[in-house]
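Next up, a chain.

===
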Amino acid sequence: MKRTQKKRKLTDEEIDDLVIAEADDPSAWGDPVIVPPSKAPRPPWMAQAKHLDLAAKFFVLSVLHRLGLEATLTFSQNDNVDITIVQESGRALTIDVKTLSGSKEWHIAPFRARDHHYVVFVWYPTTTDPRVLPTAYVVASERLRKLLNRRKVLSLPLDVLATELSAQDAWEELAVLRASTTGEGSS
């Protein structure tokens, strides 16, 4: 009876050493994988959604900077964090930016509710006219979670955020936090 030996899994360091040792040996490498371009055009909604998502993040970032907040865009998007606001040494706020276009109905997607974390919904009307500005809804993630637990729905109209949580253009929630942590008044 022949026994099959289990291959030992290489450590990261061993893999690095092997790659470095074989870096100049073309026979150690396989042929490159080449993926041809798609023959089908990309759907317009796909490009628009990607562009609007980026535009929403920069819109929020620009408002935060106008309020005098030290805000930074995060590209890793770990933990539903798109923007970080540094308040003081060791303290920060985080923001998850949600983008909507056309319909003002948010199809509820997973998010984390926690202290010092906000969700900002940026709604774009259906137009490509750059003079038409988006509307923002700013809400603390824990308040949003409580609202959703009360309502038990699969989607939520942004108008509900405006009426029940006073979230429409509620940038003062973030500006008040700045004033209370720095000891300054509103500017």
Observations:
- The domain at 44-182 is CATH 3.40.1350 (Trna Endonuclease; Chain: A, domain 1).
- The radius of gyration is 24 Å.
